[in-house]
Amino acid sequence: PEVSLQPSTLEDSETQASSPPTSADYTSPGPFRVVRLPRLEHTCHKLFPQCLGTQCLLRLDVFCPKGGSSFGVDFLGNAGALPPYPVAVFTGGFLVGSSSYLSYAERLTSWGYVTVLYDKGKHDLVAQIKLHPQSAESAVDNLDDVISVKFIQEIIDWCGSHPVISRVSDTSRVYLCGHSRGGKLSVLAAALDPRVVALCLLDPVDNTVWAPLGPGYPSGIQALKQLGDKQTADGRQAVPLALIGSGLGGDCAPKAANFRQVAMNHQSFPCIEASLLFYEACTAPAWMVSIEQAGHFQFLDKQSSMQRAVCAQGKVPDYSVRQISQVSVGQ
To answer: Residue 267, Cα to own-chain centre: how many angstroms?
Structure first.
């Protein structure tokens, strides 16, 4: 979001920014303090019967910006960047719990976004034996991409109707971020929802042998291309894209489906053009960063033992991968 650099108009001169910076340094957290609300739950009644029982449950962590004195802004004052703030929804990878992206939520919020992390379904003891202990889905009990996209739209609606969160949320300006499958879901949601004004994808994965192109599993790459066509036809504002990919993600982000996709098996993926990259499919302003010596799960705050054992680990430290990614996400 744009941050006003005008001095504060609050009466107490001590609260004013004496020399506000002329440009933002996205290599560090932003000027806002981060307030994390208690975990909330929301049942997506509108999705019944596409989801049943606890499948319709969302568990949400919401982070709100507060303060920003170095820019002469105040969460409850009358100057600078005041509520409502744009909304950022971060969607994690398949079977990866939202707690693995906590640092991303904090970074986004520090730059003036109301940020939402979420998990689908009810967490229970069974989840302890899955790929990630905070994920309530499993490889044999998961919701398809079409339904998962509706969850993202439901979250945006919820932010606009919640009695507290709606007071600080501008749901006409939504920023979707996602890692792995979450990147693909973010693209699919952006193609359907004009409230989405920006995208950031971390090592996104499209259709794979485990989720081949078909009913319930459309192509994110194709949706990104169609999004550009819709923008031209409908006069919708272009949706800019930031893309961060790993060079060693092929073990867990299949090479035929990841951000560097260079060849597609047309028998398995008949509707996707060969050599169509996420980056090349975007007709809006786009920026791509490739971390060659990084693995698919090095983007996470903390990897599980399973993730470390199965997926490649590059020479770039996990912390550095996250820092590089968060510079891109925060902008």
So the answer is: 31
Beta bridge partners of 214: 217
Mean per-residue pLDDT for 18-25? 55
Q: Per the omega criterion (within 30 degrees of 0), is the bond before 7 cis?
A: no
Q: Report the distance separating Cα 213 and Cα 272, nearest Å.
A: 9
More confident residue, 62 or 246: 62
Q: Which residue(s) pair with 202 in the sheet?
A: 179, 244
User: Please, which pLDDT band fits residue 331 given cuts at 50, 70 and 90?
Assistant: confident
SS (H, E, C) the chain: CCCCCCCCCCCCHHHCCCCCCCCCCCCCCCCEEEEECCCEEEECHHHCCCCCHHHHEEEEEEEEEEECHHHCCCCCCCCCCCCCEEEEEEECCCCCCHHHHHHHHHHHHHCCCEEEEEEECCCCHHHHHCCCCCCCCECCECCCHHHHHHHHHHHHHHHHHCCCHHHCEEEEEEEEEEECHHHHHHHHHHHHCCCEEEEEEECCECCCCCCCCECCECCHHHHHHHHHHHHHHHCCCCCCEEEEEECCHHHCCCCCCECCCCCCCCCCCCCCCCCCCHHHHCCCCEEEEEECCCCHHHHCCCCCHHHHHHCCCCCCCHHHHHHHHHHHHHC
* pLDDT level of residue 76 (50, 70, 90 thresholds): very low
Domains of the chain: 22-330 (3.40.50.1820)
Whether the pTM exceeds 0.90: the reply is: no
Closest C-alpha among 230, 220, 234 to residue 189: 220
Q: Mind listing the pLDDT tens digit for each residue in 93-137?
A: 988 999 999 999 999 999 999 999 999 986 544 444 444 444 456
pLDDT band for position 43 (cuts 50, 70, 90): very high
Amino acid symbol at 202: L
The tokens describing 230, both together, are: 């819709």
pLDDT of 313 reads 86
Cβ-contact 71, 31 below 8 angstroms = yes
